[in-house]
Amino acid sequence: MGPVAGRRPEGLFVGLCTLDVVQLVDRVPGPDEKLTARDQVVAAGGPATGAAVAFGRLGGLPRLLTGLGSHPLALGVRADLDALGVRVRDLAAESTHPPAVSSVLVTASTGERAVASTNATGHRLRAPADLEELVACDIAEFDGHHLALAVEAAHVARSAGRLTVLDAGSWKDGTERLLPSTDVAVCSADFHPPGTASPAETMEFLRDHGVVWAAVTGGAAPIVWAGPGGGGLVGVPETRVVDTLGAGDVLHGALAYHLSGPDRIDGPAFAEALSRAATVASHACASFGTRAWLTTG
Question: Molecular function terms in GO for this entry (predicted)?
Answer without folding.
Answer: kinase activity
